[in-house]
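Lay summary. Proteins are chains of building blocks that fold into shapes, and those shapes determine what they do. In this project we predict the shape from the chain. Here is one chain we studied, written as its sequence of building blocks.
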Amino acid sequence: MPSAKSAARSSANSTDNVGISVNEKILRECHRLYVPADSDDDKGLISIAQSVGISLLAPRKKITVMLMGNHSAGKSSFINWYVEEHIQRTGVAIETQGFTVVTSGKKRESLLGNASFHLFPHLKPMQQIEGVPEYVTTEISTSKQKKFNLVMFVDTPGLVDGDMLYPFDVNQSIEFLGGLCDLVFVFFDPIGQALCKRTLNIVEHLNDKFSDRIRFFLSKADTAGTESDRQRVLMQITQELCKRPGLNKCGFDMPTIFVPSLVDKQPRCENQIEKVCKEIDKTINQTIQHTLNKLEEDCIQIDTKVEHILHEDRSQGNANLKATLISFFLLVLTSLTGFILSMSYITFDFLKIKETELFITPVEQFWRELPKAQEFRTRTTLGVMLFVLLVATKLFSRKLPTLSRKERRTLQEKQNYVISQIKPLKAKLYTEYLKQSVGDHDL
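And here is the predicted shape, written in a compact code that computers can read:
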């Protein structure tokens, strides 16, 4: 893990971060800590975690917002207004409408299904839903308006009731996407099918699992007529929603919104479209905080796991040392037992030489003084002892697996890198994030 390589990468990163917002920089930096730009670099947290048996997911660089609702509810118009570019066609025939991912990039481009799934691997399970791949597209815009650099929109097909046949399972597809998104905006059109049962059914299913992500809006509120007409529409939608289990909750909020550029005359109601932007901004801030907190948790998890591995390695090394001493002692006993047993079958005069007489004489005296009736039992006992000692020696001679010096040194380097470099960088990024709110003097 050469430091020169890391320094070069840091220099390149600082160049890439010129001209972008603090929030975007933080999310980019966090993502690079998990997945370095250099694919051969083993300093990424995901690579380090995998080497010690931990599975981590890289944080996203953007939040995902899904828009759903009945046909002509103003979903595409809102995206165009937020991006400030006519990137999505409006008033498209329902029969040809599918899923469109709208994201920022370096150049304006449109991608079809296969390219979209390659760009967004987390969407690949949708390929298993029959008919969906042909109706997934991606629109890349260079817009820098609002917080678009930090947002990815998913525009869904307009929902209708009746005999309308979709070329794919639209309910299953939208519910799957709802599980991937940070926010789900449900647009109700006051002059369209605001009470579309298909919309209400999908919302009910999403609410069972992701109620904290769902936000309701009365779109095209300027077309709802007078204030009393608009209140009546809101009451009808609210009543229908509250009839559904799980959606009957206090403090039901449904801001009235419309795209200002599409209004020809003075609107009769307040436009609360900025509430939509505030929901996006709030989710971006929460995502940054969650990402930074998760970064620290992952660093602690890796540090703890490496420390556990090194502790286990030391314990197994100590156990191997003890086993070696015990096996050596047992080997001595085994040799002695085998020697004593073998002496009962050998002529002692043949072995009596000056160098071995000191050891052989006591054994000779033992066997000669042993009664003949006890010889067989003694030999059997010694034979059993010899067998038991051989088995015990074999068992204690087995060694537990331990790390090599190189492996141990590599683990320690990874642990030191996570604790001494990544954790302080996380603290620095958190400080930069907080400076936007509280300023330097409070930190």
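What the prediction tells us: The chain has a mean pLDDT of 81.
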